[in-house]
Design brief:
CATH topology of the domain at 5-104 and 177-245: TIM Barrel
Number of strands: 12
CATH architecture of the domain at 5-104 and 177-245: Alpha-Beta Barrel
Pathway: Amino-acid biosynthesis; L-histidine biosynthesis; L-histidine from 5-phospho-alpha-D-ribose 1-diphosphate: step 5/9
CATH class of the domain at 5-104 and 177-245: Alpha Beta
Oligomer: single chain
Subunit structure: Heterodimer of HisH and HisF.
Family: Belongs to the HisA/HisF family.
CATH superfamily of the domain at 5-104 and 177-245: Aldolase class I
Number of helices: 10
Protein name: Imidazole glycerol phosphate synthase subunit HisF
GO molecular function, one term: lyase activity
Radius of gyration: 16 Å
Strand content: 25-35%
C-alpha cells in the first residue's frame, strides 16, 4: 500500500506566509523559506505554496521565493496562485518548483490543463478545486480566492480535469478553510471516488486527529494542512506517529 503523504501548505502574500479563515482576514505567520526548510527537515513529504496576492508584483516575488526554497528543501514542492499561461508555468518550474497548481485559469480556459500536461507532463500539473456547498446540496467551484461562484459542479469538474490531463487534484472546502473543525469528508470522498488520479485533502484541518480521520474515512493520497503546523500545535512527526498508531501507512521520513 502506498504511504499517505503529509503536506504543509504555505499561503504567501508579498513574500510572507499568511493564514486566514474562509480565505479572508489574513495574519502574517513568517518567512516562507525558513518555514519551508523547517518542514522539509522535520518530515514533510511535500510542500505546497500558494501565491495569494498573485499580482504581477506578487508573481515576481514568488519566483524569487521559489528559487530560495528550491535551494533549501529536499522534498517536492508545488506552487500555485495567479498561474494563467504556459509561460507562467514554465517560469515557476524553471525557478525550481516540482509542480504547479492551477485553479481559476483552468475554469476560464480548460484547455490550459491539456496544454500544460502535454508540455510539462501530467505529473507536474496539480488542478486545484475550491468548492463550496450550496443549499441544494451540491458543491460548486469557486474562483478568485473563493469569492466567485463559477456555476460548475465540483465533482463533474474534477472528472473533467482528470480527462484534460491533470496529474492530481487539490480540492479545498471554502466552507472549512481555516475554521479548524475538520476536512469536508463528504466532498473529499465524492471527489476521490469520481477520479482515478491522486487527491489531496485540504481545508479545515485543526488537529492531528483530523488528518487520521480523513485517511481512515476516505481514500485520499495526502492531507494538506497549514494552521496546525504554522502555530506549532503539533509537529509533522507527531502527526505521523499518531497515524502509525492508528494503522495508517505513512512514510518514515
Amino acid at each position: 500500500m502506498t504511504a499517505k503523504k503529509i503536506i504543509p501548505c504555505l499561503d504567501v502574500k508579498d513574500g510572507k506566509v499568511v493564514k486566514g479563515i474562509n480565505f479572508e482576514g489574513m495574519r502574517e505567520m513568517g518567512d516562507p523559506v525558513a518555514m519551508a526548510k523547517a518542514y522539509s527537515d522535520n518530515g514533510a513529504d511535500e510542500l505546497v505554496f500558494l501565491d495569494i496576492s498573485a499580482t504581477t508584483e506578487g508573481r515576481d516575488t514568488m519566483v524569487d521565493v521559489v528559487k530560495q526554497v528550491a535551494a533549501q528543501v529536499n522534498v517536492p514542492f508545488t506552487v500555485g496562485g495567479g498561474i494563467r499561461t504556459v509561460d507562467d508555468i514554465a517560469r515557476i518550474l524553471d525557478a525550481g518548483a516540482d509542480k504547479v497548481g492551477i485553479n481559476s485559469a483552468a475554469v476560464a480556459r480548460p484547455e490550459l490543463i491539456k496544454e500544460a500536461a502535454e508540455k510539462f507532463g501530467s505529473e507536474r500539473i496539480v488542478a486545484a478545486v475550491d468548492a463550496k456547498l450550496f443549499p441544494d446540496g451540491t458543491w460548486r467551484v469557486m474562483t478568485h480566492g473563493g469569492l466567485k461562484d463559477a456555476g460548475i459542479d465540483a465533482i463533474e469538474w474534477s472528472k473533467q480535469l482528470e480527462q484534460l490531463g491533470a496529474g492530481s487534484l487539490l480540492p479545498t472546502s471554502v466552507d472549512r478553510d481555516g475554521v479548524k473543525d475538520g476536512y469536508d469528508l463528504e466532498l473529499t470522498k465524492a471527489i476521490v471516488e469520481a477520479v482515478n488520479i491522486p487527491v489531496i485533502a485540504s481545508g479545515g484541518c485543526g488537529n492531528a486527529e483530523h488528518i487520521v480521520e480523513v485517511f481512515e474515512k476516505t481514500n485520499v493520497d495526502a492531507a494538506l494542512a497549514a494552521s496546525i503546523f504554522h502555530e506549532n500545535s503539533v509537529s509533522i512527526q507527531e502527526v505521523k506517529e499518531l497515524c502509525r498508531n492508528r494503522g495508517v501507512n505513512v512514510s518514515e521520513a
